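Model: You mentioned two targets. I'll fold them one after the other.
Researcher: Yes, keep them separate.
Model: Target one:
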Amino acid sequence: MQVNSPIIYYGSSITEGGCAPRPGTAYTSILSRWLDADYFNYGFSGGAKGELVFAEYIAKHKNISVFVYDYDHNAPTPEHLANTHEPFFKVIREAHPDIPIVMMSRPDFDRDPKDSIERRNIIYQTYINAKKSGDNNVYFVDGMQFFGPVGRSECTIDGCHPNALGFMRMAETLYPLMSHLLRDYR
C-alpha cells in the first residue's frame, strides 16, 4: 500500500545520491521504492549548510510523512553545525508539530573519527533537547552504524561517498525505522 504524503530528505551529496552508479541506487531512492513512498530529495553537493531560508522552504510543504536530515558533511565546521542544526529542526517542527523527524549523522566515520564524533554529538544534542522538551516524534540515527562492522572500506568510492554497496547498507539500516514511522500513513 502506498504512503500518501512524501518523505522529505535534506542533506549533502550523500543524500543527493552523488557517486551512486545510477539514480535508483541512492539510499533515498531505494527506501522510497521499498516503502512505496514518493519523496523530495533536497540533497546538495556542498550546498546544504542548514540555511534557515531552506528550512522555511521545506516547512511550506503542506503534507510530509517524514522529514530526514543529515547535512553535517556540508557544515564547514562543527561550530557552524552547532549554530544551525537545532534552529533548522525548530523551523520544521513549528510548521509540522506531528511529523516524525529523523536526524542522521554521516556514515563515513573512518575518514576523520574525531571530527565525525564531534559532529555526531552536536546532532545528538539536538535530538536530546527535543526529547527533553517533550517531543516524542524525533529519531536519531548514528551514521557509524550504516556501513556495518565488516567491509566498511568497500562501502565508499573515496572514503566518503557511498557506492552501491554503501547506499544499500544505509537503506537496510533505515528501512525498519522508516517502515515503522510510515505505518500510520498507509
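Model: Target two:
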Amino acid sequence: MDLEIVTLAERPELMDVFWDMETSWPEFMKHDPVGNGYYASLEEFADFVLVCLDATGRMVAKAHSVPFVLPEGELPDAGWDFAIRSGLLTRLWGEEPNACSAVEIAIVPELQGAGLSGRIVAALRDNAARLGFGELLAPVRPNGKADVGEPMATYALRTRADGLPVDPWLRVHVRAGGRIDRVCARSMVIPGTVEEWREWTGLPFDTTGPVVVPGALAPVMCDAEHGTAVYVEPNVWVRHPTGAAGR
C-alpha cells in the first residue's frame, strides 16, 4: 500500500481533520487524565506526530510520540503516564529532553492487520532519529492479552515456536527491531466515578471488587460504597535503537 508519511509540523492544516479519523480504542481508554493533557497540547509536539495518508490523501493512520526527561536507572513503572507527564513538564519548564517515547499508534479499523503497523513503528523510530534521539522507547500495550488474571510479567515473555512474542503488538515491535526491556506495572491509571464507568462500559459497577471490562488488560477495581473505580494498566517497555548519536 502506498503511504505518504508526514509530521504534523510539516502539514499543520491536517489538524482540521486530525480527530475525525476512526479508531478502535475502547471508550474507557479515552479518559486517562494524563494522556488527555498531551492530546490537548498536541500543537506543542507537532514534530513528534506522524500522519499517514493513502494515495487519495485520506488519513489512514497516525502515530504520536513525546520528548521527555528520563532519569538514570530502570525505565519507570509508571510507563505511558510517566513519559507524557514528564514530556509536558519538560516543555513547560523549558528543559532539554534526553529521551523520546511512543505514545500511540492508531490505524483505521478496516486496515488493521494489513501490515501497516511495522511500517509505522519504523517511521516513528526514524523520526526520533531525525530529531536526534538514540532510541525510541515504547510503553507497549499488549492488546492480545485476553486473560485479565494473568500477570503481565508472564504474558509478555510468552513466545511462539519461532521465538517471537505470542502477543501480536509486541511481535510487531520485536520484528521492527525492538527489544523488550521490562513491564511497567502502572503504565496508565484511569480513575472515575462508578457512574462514569457505567457510561464508558455499559456495565453495572454495583459491587465492590474487581470488574472484568472488555478491552481491559487487568481488572478494574470498583469501590461501590464510595462510588469510585480505578483501572491500573500494565504495559511493556520496549527499546528501539535509532542509530542516531543520541542526546
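Researcher: Noted. Anything on target two?
Model: The radius of gyration is 18 Å.
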